């Protein structure tokens, strides 16, 4: 039996992604009056690129540089040895103090909440922030943990057998979000 993923629907193109990130950036500014206490941290891999884009938009809107960090959560995952026999650990890059800062944690897709839980565990290793807010491009539901995003680009109801794929130019040479369906072939 072979499992294949086939495209089901394109739910965002590059313009829609750009608009969603711009809206998220404006919402972040509305909610956080002290922009000087704001930092943006993206979860590797695509969340890190989205975090950089959000920071650039915040700078464009407010004219203030917001520090950006990158978080690799591999060693904090609760499924570390059930998913990958040989986990690939990459570098976490947070070169600033997060203590008493408002952190905008960025990821591409929110699903079960386990990735975010792992990110929260790791962030606390770096200090005690004043607040952590979650920004995701896509919220697809199916939460296993009580985690809710503060900023959402788009809510996309999905079936458990579907996968949401975020493709970004920095990694995939294009910006789009698609839903794929898992099909079993014999």
Write the CATH fold name. Rossmann fold
Q: Helix fraction?
A: 25-40%
Spatially, the strands of the biggest sheet line up as 3-2-4-5-6
Order of helices and strands: EHEHEHEHEEEHE
- Kindly report how far apart the N and C termini lie: 5 Å
What portion of residues belong to β-strands?
A: 25-35%
Question: Cα-atom Rg, whole angstroms?
Answer: 17 Å
Characterize the biggest β-sheet: 5 strands, parallel
What's the tally of helices?
Answer: 5
Question: Helices and strands: which structural class?
Answer: alpha/beta
Highest-level CATH class = Alpha Beta
Please state the second-level CATH architecture: 3-Layer(aba) Sandwich
Structural write-up:
Helices cover 29% and strands 32% of the residues. It is built from 5 helices and 8 strands. It has helices at 14-31, 46-62, 80-83, 114-124, 169-172; strands at 2-12, 38-43, 68-71, 102-110, 131-139, 151-155, 162-167, 176-185. The strands form 2 sheets. Strands 3-2-4-5-6 form a 5-stranded parallel beta sheet. Strands 1-8-7 form a 3-stranded antiparallel beta sheet. β2, α2 and β3 form a beta-alpha-beta unit. α1 (14-31) crosses α2. The chain starts with a strand and ends with a strand. The model has no long low-confidence stretch (mean pLDDT 91).
